[in-house]
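Structure first, sequence second, as always.
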């Protein structure tokens, strides 16, 4: 790191212009070492478009590597916070300090002005979300709007790197023609490579800096080469060059589909727990003794703007039926209603009609500690409960349940209120301090195997059973000689749990 200031960079880039035909990395005739030097000296300005949960950590790592990064976001509050050296992304170890340091040193700046940043930058990194439209087709509008910004400043020799997850063929068939037509450059005058994020919330900096090999695939060989130069510097791990951008796009989507399909299988198996009278979680954990078996964890559904979205980047985009991917997606999407079915049955057994019952949902975000609610299973649970005319409350330390159709309750208020039931959807660590013994007995459906209510008066139903071997209703049925194989008996029995 040289600590070069942006002003130094500008003048050095100008001085070089007479001897170097292009300032960028694509199609340059500089040696690889000279390219690396220019990148790490800050002589190649970098723009990072999208400063969200992954974009801000990525921009910060680009800044610590190159010393000359402009971050762009459409949200003025995000830009204002970063300009003040503050991270608006919570739960990422080291990020607040890194952002403060990079901004303070003048290595990272932020703006809402995409075209101006594009004009000043020679490497453009895209890390905005790709969502779905109402028909579940990929919605490329945000990525294309960033491409419009980049195109206004795109110069010969520039390299565009896309880290946003994309449906395969998007770089080749959509973005390259889009950038070319909007910039009036020929496709072989600029580089375009897909280099997917292999990161997760909570470990973003570690992952970006090199936890896994970095996959790089360009629309042509020169784009792959140029992008590999960048990630050789950014990542401590190996750079895995694949044949082309479409292969790189497929790698990322396949990783997500693998996860969705395997969670779908776990969710299917977990629904056998009542009928078999076992803890399916115990069976899964034990099956996973074998390295060839990697069954996932069952739960109330699959949330976030990654895993539930990526299967749709293939479904309807191909002429193939994709029956396995489709079935898993359906199974996962139905889990919130499975959870509410179980809840309704347990309430029935306790003599309470779900219509008019008061139910509190624990955890609205899709993952503990991550402020993201897109596709959260909690939203499906709230919808299902509302459709069945239950009165729904919610607790979440990161978001306001009122924004999602549930009356807000604080953890400390739980004991003062009286609920017919609770559903654990997302086990934020704050829930560890709930004193269940201080709360009036109720039905508790635990979707995540995170509460043990055996020593309480609550009527617990653990989806799929507990890892320690307790079937969904604990040991009570076994102790009382309930016929485990008869699911009808199980669902109709009224003495299977503590009365509430
Ligand atoms: N979050 C994860 O765990 C994760 C992991 C791996 C990959 N990804 C992928 O990374 C990408 C980004 O995800 P994220 O979690 O950072 O998203 P995010 O929703 O947290 O942040 C997106 C940011 O982009 C900004 N933005 C929207 N439109 C813009 C525009 N036109 N120009 C500039 N900025 C704009 C938003 O204001 C927001 O700050 C997605 O493609 C996602 O699939 C995410
Ligand atoms: C572990 C990891 O690196 N993941 C990443 C993932 O991050 P993520 O934040 O989306 O988190 P996940 O852990 O995948 O969970 C998604 C949903 O599935 C539920 N779930 C999960 C596992 C399970 O066994 N049973 C479940 O029910 C869970 O509760 C949640 O609702 O997406 C990124 C984007 O591309 C990828 O980089 C990457 O795969």
């Amino acid at each position: 790191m040289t600590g070069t200031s942006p002003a130094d960079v500008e003048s050095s880039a100008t001085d070089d212009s007479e001897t170097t035909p292009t300032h960028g990395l694509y199609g340059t005739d500089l040696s690889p070492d000279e390219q690396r030097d220019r990148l790490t000296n800050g002589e190649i300005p970098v723009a990072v478009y999208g400063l969200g949960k992954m974009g801000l950590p990525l921009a910060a790592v680009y800044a610590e590597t190159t010393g000359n990064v402009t971050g762009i976001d459409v949200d003025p509050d995000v830009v204002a916070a970063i300009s003040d050296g503050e991270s608006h992304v919570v739960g990422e170890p080291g990020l607040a300090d890194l952002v403060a340091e990079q901004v303070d040193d003048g290595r990272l700046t932020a703006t809402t002005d995409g075209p101006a940043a594009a004009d000043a930058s020679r490497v453009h990194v895209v890390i905005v979300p790709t969502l779905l439209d109402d028909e579940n087709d990929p919605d490329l509008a945000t990525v294309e709007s960033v491409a419009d910004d980049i195109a206004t400043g795109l110069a010969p020799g520039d390299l565009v790197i896309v880290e946003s997850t994309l449906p395969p063929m998007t770089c080749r068939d959509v973005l390259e023609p889009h950038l070319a037509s909007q910039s009036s450059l020929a496709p072989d005058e600029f580089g375009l490579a897909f280099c997917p994020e292999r990161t997760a919330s909570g470990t973003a900096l570690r992952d970006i800096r090199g936890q896994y090999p970095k996959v790089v695939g360009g629309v042509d060989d020169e784009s792959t080469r140029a992008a590999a130069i960048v990630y050789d510097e950014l990542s401590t791990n190996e750079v895995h060059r694949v044949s082309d951008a479409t292969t790189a796009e497929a790698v990322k989507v396949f990783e997500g589909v693998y996860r969705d399909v395997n969670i779908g299988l776990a969710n299917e198996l977990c629904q056998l727990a009542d009928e078999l009278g076992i803890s399916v979680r115990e069976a899964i954990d034990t099956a996973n003794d074998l390295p060839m078996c990697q069954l996932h964890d069952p739960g109330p559904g699959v949330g976030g703007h990654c895993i539930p979205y990526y299967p749709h980047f293939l479904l309807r985009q191909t002429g193939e039926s994709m029956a396995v991917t489709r079935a898993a997606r359906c199974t996962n999407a139905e889990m919130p209603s499975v959870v509410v079915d179980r809840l309704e049955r347990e309430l029935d057994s306790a003599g309470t009609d779900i219509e008019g019952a008061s139910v509190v949902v624990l955890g609205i975000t899709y993952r503990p500690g991550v402020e993201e609610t897109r596709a959260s299973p909690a939203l499906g649970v709230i919808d299902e409960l509302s459709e069945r005319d239950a009165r729904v409350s919610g607790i979440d330390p990161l978001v306001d349940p009122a924004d999602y159709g549930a009356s807000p309750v604080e953890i400390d208020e739980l004991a003062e209120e009286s609920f017919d039931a609770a559903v654990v959807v997302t086990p934020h660590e704050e829930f560890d301090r709930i004193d269940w013994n201080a709360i009036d007995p109720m039905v508790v459906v635990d979707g995540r195997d995170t509460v043990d209510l055996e020593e309480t008066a609550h009527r617990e139903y653990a989806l799929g059973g507990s890892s320690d071997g307790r079937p969904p209703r604990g040991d009570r049925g076994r102790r009382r000689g309930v016929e485990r194989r008869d699911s009808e008996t199980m669902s109709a029995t009224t003495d299977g749990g503590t009365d509430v």
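Margin note: The longest strand covers residues 214-218.
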